[in-house]
Automatic annotation (TrEMBL):
Subcellular location: Cytoplasm
Catalytic reaction(s) noted: ATP + H2O + cellular proteinSide 1 = ADP + phosphate + cellular proteinSide 2
Cleaved signal peptide residues: none
Keywords linked to the UniProt accession: ATP synthesis, ATP-binding, Bacterial flagellum biogenesis, Bacterial flagellum protein export, Cytoplasm, Hydrogen ion transport, Ion transport, Nucleotide-binding, Protein transport, Translocase, Transport
SUPFAM superfamilies: P-loop containing nucleoside triphosphate hydrolases
Domain called AAA+ ATPase: residue spans: 158-342
Lineage: Bacteria, Pseudomonadati, Pseudomonadota, Alphaproteobacteria, Sphingomonadales
Name by which UniProt lists this protein: Flagellum-specific ATP synthase
Organism: Blastomonas aquatica
InterPro entries the UniProt entry points to: AAA+_ATPase, ATPase_a/bsu_AS, ATPase_alpha/beta_chains, ATPase_F1/V1/A1_a/bsu_nucl-bd, ATPase_T3SS_FliI/YscN, FliI_clade3, P-loop_NTPase, T3SS_ATPase_C
Major subcellular site: cytoplasm
Role: Probable catalytic subunit of a protein translocase for flagellum-specific export, or a proton translocase involved in local circuits at the flagellum.
Keyword Amino-acid biosynthesis annotated: no
Keyword Cell wall biogenesis/degradation: no
Length: 441
């Protein structure tokens, strides 16, 4: 009886009708497949025979009886006339708790050399819809990040989505690893989209460390991966986070970077013949960004939440470039990292005056807000007068508020210095800020 039941399940798992076409042309990364009229859909998966080696691809465009496809791996060796089998079953991701501590590629395959992954019982779509706006929960209470600059000036709340805007080489990856290790959530899901291959192991072993990795799932698609794999890595990161959120847990989702996701979508759009729009980005880039970013946030009734930090790589430190501008309008706040501050040797190089959390002021109590605003005023006044002070053009005693700012601003800056092993809880950080801002006798 057990044998009969097993045979029945195996038969039901078989695809009863199979559709296949053949490669008609290869234009750069774009593969044109004919013979799938009426059966291929946008997002359908194909397996193309490449000299006896299967290459996974996805349908990204349709033109009459031609399906435009892009591969998930290098299409070297594909020839015209090669068979392309259409997968009629929807591709699903099946995460489980056994994925914690593991490193996977953009479509959920293990790449850490630790054997196969234990799959969960239920599948989750790679590209899911966010919870309904009418039923999803509200953003929760303030989270302890252990980072003084954030806990005081740009606090992070449960289910909030923040953007991390930074140029290259200002400590973005280190800040993200501190959040992955320190934020009070159940699980961290980290997406490295378009990351340099050399830096992946450094991030996992040095920045994240064994303690951070043990409660994390890391999704990696390096910069040399095809555009489709880089875009898929972003979707996979959110799909894994959604799986844990749906089970009632609170997830910290870190993605580095949204800019490279947008670049991958631009490559896909241009390959499909879309017209370039703002700075070469195609219209689908700006349609896909909110669909990706809105998947993070609070879940629905009975679910957990996804607290997310999406990094944005600003070209030439231009914070008004199209992707940065679009992301800033979608998220619940932004953290700006400054190259000028990094060059002064203050890490994390967060620009307090340009960073905003839309959860303020309600996530601080009245005394904390008064301290925060007073510190910001001193930093702003000192920033306006800094050049005059350095040139000796300002005479002490000319303005009491400027004198106070000159006294306090360097102390506030020193308070914000922090190494990746120097964790401090928010109450202690506020106590230190209050002590240094006490009036001088």
């Amino acid at each position: 009886m057990q044998t009969l039941a097993s045979a029945t399940r195996a038969l039901r798992a078989q695809e009863l009708d199979r559709h296949f076409g053949k490669v008609a042309a290869v234009r750069g990364a774009l593969i044109e497949v004919e013979g799938l009229l009426g059966s291929a859909r946008i997002g359908s998966r194909l397996v193309i025979d490449c000299a006896g080696k299967p290459v996974d691809a996805e349908v990204t465009g349709l033109d009459r009886d031609i399906a435009h496809c892009l591969p998930f791996s290098e299409p070297q060796g594909i020839a015209t006339g090669a068979r392309a089998d259409l997968m009629t079953r929807e591709s699903m991701l099946r995460p489980s708790d056994a994925w914690l501590g593991r490193v996977v590629d953009g479509i959920g395959r293990p790449i850490d050399g630790r054997g196969p992954l234990l799959l969960g019982p239920a599948g989750h779509p790679f590209k899911a819809d966010p919870p309904s706006a009418a039923t999803r929960n509200r953003v929760g209470n303030k989270l302890e990040t252990g980072i003084r600059a954030l806990d005081i000036f740009a606090p992070l709340c449960q289910g909030q989505r923040l953007g991390l805007f930074a140029g290259s080489g200002v400590g973005k990856s280190t800040l993200m690893s501190m959040l992955a290790r320190w934020v009070e959530t159940d699980i961290a899901v980290i997406g490295l989209v378009g990351e340099r291959g050399r830096e992946v192991q450094e991030f996992i072993e040095d920045d994240l460390g064994p303690e951070g990795l043990a409660r994390s799932v890391v999704v990696v698609a390096t910069s040399d991966s095809p555009a489709l794999m880089r875009r898929q890595a972003a979707w996979t990161t959110l799909a894994i986070a959604e799986h844990f959120r749906d089970s009632g847990r609170h997830v910290m989702c870190l993605m580095d970077s949204v800019t490279r996701f947008a670049m991958a979508q631009r490559e896909i759009g241009l390959a499909n013949g879309e017209p370039p729009a703002t700075k070469g980005y195609t219209p689908t880039v700006f349609a896909e960004l909110p669909r990706l970013l809105e998947r993070a946030g609070p879940g629905g009734p009975g679910q957990g939440s996804i607290t997310a930090l999406f990094s944005v790589l600003v070209d030439g430190d231009d914070h008004d470039e199209p992707i940065a501008d679009a992301v800033r309008g979608i998220l619940d706040g932004h953290i700006v990292m400054s190259r000028k501050i990094a060059e002064r040797g203050r890490y994390p190089a967060i620009d307090i005056l340009k960073s905003v959390s839309r959860m303020l002021p309600r996530c601080h109590d009245e005394a904390e807000n008064d301290l925060r605003l007073a510190a910001i005023r001193h930093l702003a006044i000192y920033g306006d007068m800094e050049e005059l002070v350095r040139l000796g053009a300002y005479k002490p005693g000319a303005d009491a508020t400027v004198d106070e700012a000159i006294r306090l601003a360097p102390a506030i800056e020193y308070l914000l210095r922090q190494t990746k092993d120097d964790r401090e809880l928010a109450p202690q950080a506020f106590a230190r800020l209050a002590a240094l801002m006490e009036p001088k006798p």
